[in-house]
Amino acid sequence: MPCAARPPRRSLAYSYIWKTTKGVTGCRDLVLKLRNGTTLRVLFIFR
What we know:
Layout: E1 26-33, E2 39-46
Antiparallel strand pairs: 1-2
């Protein structure tokens, strides 16, 4: 999904739409690798 996480014009924030089912528990990683080689990782904890 190369276009899923693009910022709107004149914005410094990114948005990413992510749906999970109600039964999801535990940890999930969202890892983004940018064109410049930078890797960003976010850990989500579902209870």
